Amino acid sequence: MTDHPNYRSLSPPEDKPRDEYTYAERRAELYDAIDRAGHYRNLERSQRQLGDRYGVSHTTIRKDINAILEWKADHLGENAEAELETLKNKAVRDALDENDAAKAYRLMTTHFQNLMAVGEIEEAPDKHQIDHSGSLFNLPDEVTDNWERTDGDGE
């Protein structure tokens, strides 16, 4: 595990110019932008444009993105469901904005499969895995004992 601040919880001061941000403040803002975009490749600005925005080189922005991704990988287990939920919501919104309900459904299905894969939710049993033993009703023992003594034709 690497030694990074919690980018998710940091908020740069609103009145501070971006080119005066500390590396942690810059990364916190980049973290939020990546989170909104769903993936760092979906950012609205290029690394060069982001570098100009923050008064640093595009190489520094690339290092910031790598550090953010490293931090997210270290902390995904703690927040896997939330991370997947964020990605799913963005993708489903985009699919619905494109009037592609089938794509939105596939994304939801994949989302639930991902949650099951990381153990965040239990897999629902299919019809062959359901235990049919027991009764749906709370019947007296004398009734159910009688059922066990018959061979199915009432005798």
SSE map:
Layout lengths: L22 H15 L9 H8 L3 H40 L3 H17 L23 H9 L6
Helix pairs in contact: 1-3, 2-3, 3-4
* Helix coverage percent: 55-70%
Main beta-sheet strand count, sense and barrel state: none
Distance between the termini: 69 Å
Shape: elongated
The structural class is mainly alpha
Integer average pLDDT? 78
Runs in which pLDDT lies below 50 for 5 or more consecutive residues are none
Give me the number of helical elements.
5
Say how many strands there are: 0
Proportion of strand residues: under 5%
Radius of gyration: 26 Å
Task: List SSEs in N-to-C order.
Answer: HHHHH
Description:
The protein is mainly α and 155 residues long. The chain has a domain at 18-122. It contains five helices and no strands.
In short:
With 155 residues, this protein is an all-alpha fold.
